[in-house]
Amino acid sequence: MCWIRNLKDAARALGRARMFSTVAVLTLAVGIGAAAAVANLARGVLIAPLPYPDQERLTLIWSTDVERDVQRWQVTVADFLDWREQARTFSAMAPYQQTDYNFSGGDSPERVSGYRVGVDIFAVLGIQPVLGRAFAAGDKSPTSERVVILGHGFWRNRLGSDPESLGKTIRLDDVPHVVIGVLPPGIAFPERDVDVWVPLRFDASRASRVSRSMTVVARVARPYTLQQAQTEMDILARALEEQYPASNSGTGVWVAPLRSELVRESDQRVLTLVGAVTLLLLVTCANLMGLLLIRWTDRRADLAIRTALGASRLRQLKTLLTESLLLGLSGGAGGLLIAASLTKVTVRFIPSTLSTAGVTGFSASLVGMTLAVSVVAAALFGVAPALGFSRTAPAELLRRRRSGPSIGTRRVQGALVVSEVAVALALMVASGLLLRSIEKLSGEQLGFTPNQTLVATLDLPASRYSEAGAPTRFFEGVLDRVHSMPNVVAAGFASYAPMAGSGGMIYYEPPGSSGRSGPPDLVYVRMVTTRYLEALGTTLSNGRQFDYTDRSGTPTVAIVNEAFVSRYLSGVPSVLGSELPLGALDVNAQVVGVLNDVRYVGLDTDARPEIYLHEAQFPSYSFFTPRDLVVRSAQDPLGLVGSIRSSVVAEDPALPLFDVRTMHAVIGAGLDGPRFQLRLFAGFAIVALFLSSLGIFAV
Fold first, then answer.
1. Which of 173, 544, 562, 686 has the most neighbouring CB atoms within 10 Å?
2. How many CB atoms lie within 10 A of CB 69?
């Protein structure tokens, strides 16, 4: 057959030029491997359908606040109940909220990931357990038996994939839950590797219109469209605003496609990576095109003689193109190995809301992407020599063989080298800009001293710490033990440590604002123990820190940050002693100190108004109950981990200590994404620069 003969001719020609073929294949393997890995990543993140029936009908429903310019606001229980009852364009909707648990069924207590969900959530998604049953309507009753559905990974790793697990009881936050089902593997909603699913329980008669703690997933009913669903929800939002102006004034609704929401934090990074690797592939192809032009110049006499002896120009043109295709496929074979290795790196770009199936390691999609990139690359770098041959007469080929490369060929080679260098420099500039951004973030003033500081997390279960004063007794017991350890400078608990979570907020109406239009402001509340601010390494610009005399029953005191003073107390003659009306907490607090601003939310976020309150003055368990332990040491704080764990176990043997890391590690986690992106861009730039140097040498 003709194509077999062309393939044999191409293979013989490349075999006679082993050095050229080896360099070409290795060069292509790098470019094609990187391009295939990123193309496969882009397919998985931006194109591949979600593993749910009619996934285009799935949506997330958010509350919005026009006056605060908030587009994605969590939903109140009362609003959700009204939506579910009145909306007709949705076949089903269900709320969910992240709620991790302390699991005490193993050799030692541990933290497991979990979600509390509406009982209809699996019907919304179109998921059925592989073992047992889904939630039923009766499971949400506050008086019903507590049940749990297990994630497949939890069932496999902790229960040994035992089919007899159904009906067994596990303890979550020290509360018994009966296992009623096991989900199939690969479920990545709301995120990958969820361990346990528990029904949301709430009393509809006491549903709040103020506390926003839920996200809602819904399925648009047939034959309605997403736009029709949005129109109906807009009408419902206006009706609720008229009915409940105190809580719903300015509150709207946004119906967003589920897929776009799941990837919204990753799509731009993936597209940027696609752009970078496309430039690298173009450099690779330009480099190979230049090498093929040189090879074609050396072979012109051979091609002319073959043509003079009767070989058709079409056949020789096919042979040249087949050589390019053979090089591309050979480079693709090596590129497949490189791509499979790179998927272990690019997986970090996959959001936690998507499955990694088919995106990591060898897969049919990766093979397909590699083949496609190989063919495209072959077409790109093989077209110029083939066109050059097709447009040149045999006599002209012989004449040019004696005179060397033509002016046109030299111009093409020069243009290719210039373009290679330009692309390589563009990638280097992009890497430099990323590096500059990282340096700028790293150099921001934190407002505290992270050196020799340890952060660890624990979560008190409400089932055992609901008694007034129980959390305070636990915190003081642990801190007494920690402070007695050698080299400990100070230790304290807080609702959240800096950059470990944004923390809770309350509505705040400053004195004299009763006649002001618009909704009340939201300010952060940090509930802390006595020496927390000392352990954090921050300072006060005015007033005093909390001390051990600040107890339940004494006047409530507060420390505010400079941002709070600038926003609310700038016109007050004396900030110290000012009364803060904290209606959300049903208390007035007196300002006793002003704290220098701390970058609490992130390196790229300026300090926001914050109120610090003493945990001991709020003895009842609440959302603001501290969870993060901060320990400042005179030496390496990691050497204290074992002793700190022992201190926690001494107070509560069933309580796990988790997420133990240094404060530098906490801060560095915020830079992991940009640093990883920088390393990839720098790697691409170095490879492109190396290929460009080869192109210059070849010319």
1. 173
2. 7
